[in-house]
Specification:
Elements: H1 2-24, E1 27-28, H2 29-38, H3 45-57, E2 61-68, E3 71-78, H4 80-100
Antiparallel strand pairs: 1-3, 2-3
Helix pairs in contact: 1-4, 2-3
Length: 101
Amino acid sequence: MKDQIIRKIFNGLIYIHILHHGNEQCFYGSWMIEELKEHGYNISPGTLYPTLKSMVDEGYLLKEEKNVNGKIRKYYKNTDKGNELLNDLKENLKELVNEVL
């Protein structure tokens, strides 16, 4: 049960992390996997890419395809809606952290 709860919380935090980086700069999926790994998340492409697709479909991220050395690479960045969500999540997280700690 403990591991399931921790996993659910980490999964939610992944969305915040994606939006955080999408606000700062364009990123591509394999870079995000490595970035998340540096913070202790072990996320597979089979988990990340559907997450990114759903965030694009819901209007939180924009996707741009670029040709890099003959391969198409998908870059992501926040939409205005994504930035609004990020700001809301940061406020909620700040309130929770202040209360719990």
